[in-house]
Write a structure and sequence with these properties.
Blueprint (H helix, E strand, L loop, with lengths): L2 E6 L7 H14 L4 E6 L1 H4 L6 H17 L7 E5 L5 H10 L4 H5 L2 H7 L7 H15 L5 E3 L5 H18 L7 E3 L34 H10 L16 H14 L3 H7 L4 H30 L1 H28 L4
Parallel strand pairs: 1-2, 2-3, 4-5
Length: 326
């Protein structure tokens, strides 16, 4: 079986974009691949975090993984900081990564823009992401367009290491769904839906109640006219909402256009609201059930142990190739 690796940061509130662009695909991939899904808490501390809130968010993200349909019997779910090999391999990879490569990373430029001080970790973040992926000899990485540059660096580092020290790492390939891979903001459809955006109307959180979802969809930016038609250039607002509808329902964009021909935005938004609330209602019910049961901690303990075993095998090989240890 092919091996899949991906992760989500335990910061902010997980939203519909995280679910439709990433977690929903994780659920599908677990049926056909050997999947490792991580709560990447080491990445979270590249910027300041409240320790108590961070711990709560780690549990929340893991619980939402399982509530959304990830099965601990089919996929390995674990917490990044529980596997020391991530930090260790990250340092080794930093030592073959060029300063200029990290300086060209778009996300670093965006997150450091206008700041007088920022952490070294924010700069070296892509090397840690490469370690996350390469530790598990990953074949496929479900990744959004905004992370594709980081995956390219992971591929470059795998190839560079293999050339210098002999075949060691698999060179991972991206997995980017055609529709729904990048859900955009409700208030500005040319920007990505974001956990860090201060305006709560930017996104629909996975734990938003039905009334909140209805209000947010009603306020979502559309375009001039009232035709429900998919065109990212001419109609980015309704196209974004159609991508949500298509990904949840399974209807093609053409089908949606046909179904709402002559009906306008109001009817479409009403049906989209019902569709989203139906999907989130199932996730939220399972989420609260899991929290009450205390099962998530035991699932993570098992996942951490398996990830530690697999990561240790790769790390031992890397150390030997680099001449580290006795």
């Amino acid at each position: 079986m092919k091996r899949v690796f991906s992760g989500v940061q335990p910061t902010g509130d997980l939203h519909l974009g995280n679910y439709l662009g990433a977690i929903r695909n994780f659920v599908k991939l677990q049926e056909e691949a050997d999947c490792f899904f991580c709560v990447v808490d080491l990445h979270a501390i590249t910027v300041p975090q409240d320790p108590k809130v961070l711990q709560q968010k780690i549990l929340e993200v893991a619980t939402l993984y399982f509530a959304a349909g990830i099965d601990p019997q089919k996929a390995t779910v674990f917490v990044q900081s529980a596997v020391p090999a991530h930090a260790e391999l990250s340092w080794m990879l930093q030592c073959i990564t060029y300063f200029g490569e990290l300086g060209r990373m778009t996300q670093f430029k965006d997150k450091s823009a206008g700041k007088e001080n920022f952490s070294v970790g924010l700069f070296t973040y892509p090397a840690l992401m490469a370690a996350d992926i390469l530790l598990y000899q990953t074949d496929i990485v479900p990744v959004g367009q905004d992370q594709k540059q980081h995956l390219e660096l992971s591929r470059d580092l795998a190839q560079r290491f293999n050339q210098r020290f002999g075949d060691t790492f698999k060179v991972p390939e991206p997995y980017i769904p055609e529709v729904g891979a990048r859900i955009m903001a409700l208030d500005d459809p040319v920007k990505k839906m974001s956990k860090s955006e201060s305006n709560p109307n930017n996104r629909i959180n996975l734990l938003d109640d039905a009334k909140t979802v209805k209000k947010k969809i009603a306020r979502a930016v559309t375009d001039s006219g009232s035709e429900v038609r998919y065109s990212l250039e001419e109609k980015p607002g309704i196209s974004n909402l159609m991508a949500m509808y298509s990904t949840i329902s399974g209807d093609s964009l053409k089908q949606i256009e046909e179904n709402y021909r002559g009906k306008g935005y109001g009817a479409f938004k009403g049906d989209l609201t019902d569709l989203i609330n139906g999907e989130l209602g199932k996730i939220q019910a399972k989420y609260h059930e899991l929290l009450a049961s205390g099962q998530v901690q035991s699932y993570l303990e098992e996942g951490n142990k398996k990830a530690q075993r697999v990561a240790a095998e790769t790390l031992q090989i890397v150390k030997a190739k680099m001449g580290l240890g006795i």
